[in-house]
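#struct-pred

JT: dropping the chains for the assembly here, can someone run the whole complex?
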Amino acid sequence: MSPIIAIVAHTDKNRFDMPAVSIPTAYTQAVEKAGGIPLILPFTGNSDLLPRMAAHADGFLFPGGFDMDPAYFNEAPLPELGRVNRELDVFQVAAFETAMEMKKPVLGICRGAQLINVALGGSLFQDIASQFGEPVLDHMQKQIHFGTDHPVEITRGSRLFGMFGSGIMVNSRHHQSVKDPGAGLRITAKSPDGVVEALEHTALPIDLVQWHPELMMLGNQAMAPLFSAFVRSCKGGSAV
Ligand SMILES: [Mn+2]
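RK: done, full complex below.
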């Protein structure tokens, strides 16, 4: 049976300037193409609802979005920090903890990867360009597009290596990145300038990528192995 993948939505203003549940359809389409059934898990601000909501899902996708509040890794905000939404951070961290307690597969993309790294006790560069200390590529491409921007080198023996081999081209639209990996996470890919681009959990089915595979899926099939492996791993889960 096709697994149900909960996509943990954001909030944003809609065209009537009203707060709304928000998720780019590229995520739902990528899940569907890979054989999963997408289900939006809305932001409610009430983490007590999460265990019941999560019981309906076989896996969880944490999408891209706002910056993380640096209070999570005991830092004051830098001037270069982007928009943060503290309530959303709290709710999504609780959603991740719920998924982890249930040992269900998790795929974190961009902000989703950063959020999970922080939830596991890791830290971030609040702004790569001003904090990384070495010359870096332009990771914050102005234009969201379906092509690729820079290569990543993939760690031998990682789950990602099994999907893509030693390297692959990816897109890039992020100004934050993982600094110290959270507990249980190991780095599985870096760009040539040394920026962390992917991590995986050593004991749980948690995979994190800094790029946007869902957008690449709108252009070609290069990222199909990532979504297919994720959806396949969710088939072991138990839906209500
Ligand atoms: Mn990048």
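JT: nice. The longest strand covers residues 185-190. The CA atoms of residues 165 and 204 lie 21 Å apart.
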